[in-house]
């Protein structure tokens, strides 16, 4: 066993079974995974790494993809994990989402990540693209009715949108293929963001950079008021 295989064997120790699959928007699939581990210590906003096509030969790292935990329900010694997979490219994740059927197995990591919920703030603002939508939905599940929630999700078409488990969207939709569009940046600039608001920015790496510069360098928000996580950058691989 080479070094890569040893690392991945240690990371992906949990077999999960696909017990549910549904296309919930254009090229967006909702999967429910069953794993014989109780993830009771899960922090809202953590993710899973999946080793896709575990029996396939080839470089393991090319088949690892990261997906936000939309919802996790524990029952005894088992956990049932919901994830949303966007299949808008021709990469391994999109291929897996399209061809995988109920009953298939996949290797998963334990819950990981630091792009997590801060419950100490009274207001929460979420900004991102479709790939961040399930992540933000997870956050809202763990906020109280007394905490104010607002959000902006952008995409090139409303057909890519999907609702939360209760059938609601809960966020403002901005139709654009580019999150750093001049008019959209002007919209972000006009937002009244107080010091009691935690701002979460996720999805396109270019958006994360642009909004970090806008809010911190131009508008003077404290850097610690923002939580920023690039999920992807066009043309690059290896991002979580």
What does this entry show, briefly?
This protein is 20% helix and 34% strand. The chain has five helices and twelve strands.
Topology, please?
Blueprint: H1 3-11, E1 14-25, E2 28-35, E3 47-51, E4 64-68, E5 71-75, E6 78-86, H2 92-99, E7 105-108, E8 123-129, H3 133-141, E9 148-155, E10 172-175, H4 182-190, E11 197-204, H5 205-218, E12 226-232
Parallel strand pairs: 8-9, 8-11, 9-10, 11-12
Antiparallel strand pairs: 1-2, 1-7, 2-6, 3-4, 3-7, 5-6
Characterise this structure.
The protein folds into two domains: 3-109, Elongation Factor Tu (Ef-tu), domain 3; 123-232, Nucleotide-binding domain of ferredoxin-NADP reductase (FNR) module (Rossmann fold, 3-Layer(aba) Sandwich). The protein is of the alpha/beta class. It has helices at residues 3-11, 92-99, 133-141, 182-190, 205-218, and strands spanning 14-25, 28-35, 47-51, 64-68, 71-75, 78-86, 105-108, 123-129, 148-155, 172-175, 197-204, 226-232. The protein has a seven-stranded antiparallel β-sheet with strand order 4-3-7-1-2-6-5. The protein is globular and about 50 Å long. Helix 3 links the parallel strand 8 and strand 9 (148-155). The longest helix has 14 residues, at 205-218.
């Amino acid at each position: 066993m080479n070094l890569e295989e040893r690392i991945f064997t240690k990371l992906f120790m949990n077999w999960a079974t696909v017990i549910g699959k549904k296309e919930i928007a254009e090229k967006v699939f909702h999967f429910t995974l069953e794993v014989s581990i109780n993830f009771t210590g899960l922090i809202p906003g953590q993710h899973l790494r999946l080793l896709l096509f575990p029996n396939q030969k080839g470089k393991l790292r090319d088949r690892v993809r990261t997906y936000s935990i939309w919802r996790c329900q524990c029952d005894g010694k088992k956990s049932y994990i919901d994830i949303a997979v966007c299949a808008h490219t021709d990469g391994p994740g999109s291929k897996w989402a399209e061809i995988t059927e109920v009953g298939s197995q996949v290797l998963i990591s334990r819950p990981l990540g630091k792009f997590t919920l801060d419950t100490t703030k009274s207001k929460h603002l979420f900004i991102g693209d479709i790939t961040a939508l399930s992540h933000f939905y997870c956050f809202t599940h763990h906020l109280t009715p007394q905490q104010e929630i607002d959000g902006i999700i952008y995409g090139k078409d409303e057909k890519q949108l999907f609702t939360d488990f209760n059938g609601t969207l809960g966020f403002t939709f901005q139709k654009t293929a580019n999150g750093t569009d001049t008019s959209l940046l002007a919209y972000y600039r006009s937002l009244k963001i107080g010091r009691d608001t935690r701002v979460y920015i996720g999805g396109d790496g270019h958006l994360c950079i642009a909004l970090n510069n806008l809010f911190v360098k131009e508008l003077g928000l404290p850097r610690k008021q923002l939580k920023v996580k690039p999920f992807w950058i066009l043309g690059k691989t290896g991002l979580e």
